[in-house]
């Protein structure tokens, strides 16, 4: 269950990171409320996962999911660069996440 909590926390991190763009510096009420709620939920699920998963592994995977997902959604939603070197770096992050999962107790 800890790994499920960690994945949920990572997905919520993507949501709040993308949500920051829509808050326009926390000047828009509903996007701001939604973003803060996603932040709180993300931290909650991360804290639950870290009861079992080592902190270094859990934090790295949480941020890795967030970085990779936010970058991919940035490409899709905001027309950010999809240059091959950039995608290659995202692939390296995903490989690192898989490696940490496979080598963790």
From TrEMBL:
<dbReference type="GO" id="GO:1990961">
    <property type="term" value="P:xenobiotic detoxification by transmembrane export across the plasma membrane"/>
</dbReference>
<keyword id="KW-0812">Transmembrane</keyword>
<keyword id="KW-1003">Cell membrane</keyword>
<dbReference type="Pfam" id="PF00893">
    <property type="entry name" value="Multi_Drug_Res"/>
</dbReference>
<feature type="transmembrane region" description="Helical">
    <location>
        <begin position="84"/>
        <end position="103"/>
    </location>
</feature>
<keyword id="KW-0813">Transport</keyword>
<dbReference type="GO" id="GO:0005886">
    <property type="term" value="C:plasma membrane"/>
</dbReference>
<feature type="transmembrane region" description="Helical">
    <location>
        <begin position="59"/>
        <end position="78"/>
    </location>
</feature>
<dbReference type="GO" id="GO:0022857">
    <property type="term" value="F:transmembrane transporter activity"/>
</dbReference>
<protein>
    <recommendedName>
        <fullName>Guanidinium exporter</fullName>
    </recommendedName>
</protein>
<dbReference type="InterPro" id="IPR000390">
    <property type="entry name" value="Small_drug/metabolite_transptr"/>
</dbReference>
<comment type="similarity">
    <text>Belongs to the drug/metabolite transporter (DMT) superfamily. Small multidrug resistance (SMR) (TC 2.A.7.1) family. Gdx/SugE subfamily.</text>
</comment>
<keyword id="KW-0472">Membrane</keyword>
<keyword id="KW-1133">Transmembrane helix</keyword>
<dbReference type="InterPro" id="IPR045324">
    <property type="entry name" value="Small_multidrug_res"/>
</dbReference>
<feature type="transmembrane region" description="Helical">
    <location>
        <begin position="27"/>
        <end position="47"/>
    </location>
</feature>
<dbReference type="InterPro" id="IPR037185">
    <property type="entry name" value="EmrE-like"/>
</dbReference>
């Amino acid at each position: 269950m800890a790994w499920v909590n960690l994945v949920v926390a990572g997905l919520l991190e993507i949501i709040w990171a993308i949500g920051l763009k829509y808050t326009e510096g926390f000047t828009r009420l509903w996007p701001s409320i939604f973003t803060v709620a996603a932040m709180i939920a993300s931290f909650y699920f991360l804290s639950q996962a870290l009861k079992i998963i080592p902190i270094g592994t859990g934090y790295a995977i949480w941020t890795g999911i967030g970085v990779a997902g936010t970058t991919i959604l940035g490409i899709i939603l905001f027309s950010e660069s999809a240059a091959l070197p950039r995608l290659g770096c995202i692939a390296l992050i995903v490989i690192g996440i898989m490696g940490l999962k496979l080598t963790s107790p």
